[in-house]
């Protein structure tokens, strides 16, 4: 019903920046909330940021607040995650998700992208 495709991951040195993109397609009308999550090896999936297509400010995990910025482009059905001042602990597979509303819990999202690897070297 909803397809999500992430892009923009890669290898970057500590202190560098990356911008992730998530393109949504299909029946997205009921998927009002979009989220970014990440999962590092041996760890559970972790909330990063969320935003609504309808408006309002994004919400961020404390670990990325002030460094990451989530934004949306409704015309392109695309959300972004601008990541600045990257740290080695940011290394993870980053996933885009769509759900009924904005949420900080992975289980509340209905659709997920395939993930994109972000590796931050020291």
Keywords for this entry:
single chain; mainly beta; 7-stranded mixed sheet; 0% helix; 53% strand
Any chance you could write out the topology, listing elements then pairs?
Blueprint: E1 2-7, E2 10-13, E3 18-26, E4 33-39, E5 46-52, E6 59-60, E7 68-73, E8 78-83, E9 92-99, E10 109-112, E11 116-121
Parallel strand pairs: 2-11
Antiparallel strand pairs: 1-3, 3-8, 4-5, 4-9, 5-6, 7-8, 9-10, 9-11
Q: Average pLDDT, to the nearest integer?
A: 96
Query: Which H/E pattern describes the elements?
Result: EEEEEEEEEEE
Outline the biggest β-sheet. 7 strands, mixed
Number of helices: 0
What structural category characterises the helix and strand content? mainly beta
DSSP strand (E) fraction? Answer: over 45%
Query: Are there runs of 5+ residues with pLDDT below 50, and where?
Result: none
Shape: globular
Radius of gyration: 13 Å
Helix content: under 10%
Would you count the extended β strands for me?
11
Could you tell me how far the N terminus lies from the C terminus, measured between alpha carbons in angstroms?
Answer: 40 Å
């Amino acid at each position: 019903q909803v397809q999500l495709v992430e892009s923009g991951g890669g290898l970057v040195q500590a202190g560098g920046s990356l911008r992730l993109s998530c393109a949504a397609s299909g029946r997205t009308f009921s998927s009002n909330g979009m989220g970014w999550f990440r999962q590092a090896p041996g760890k559970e999936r972790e909330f990063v940021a969320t935003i609504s297509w309808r408006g309002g400010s994004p919400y961020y995990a404390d670990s990325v607040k002030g460094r990451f910025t989530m934004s949306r482009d409704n015309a392109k059905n695309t959300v972004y995650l601008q990541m600045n001042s990257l740290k080695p602990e940011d290394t993870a597979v980053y996933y885009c998700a769509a759900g009924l509303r904005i949420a900080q819990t992975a289980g509340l999202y209905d659709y997920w992208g395939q993930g994109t690897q972000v590796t931050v070297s020291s």
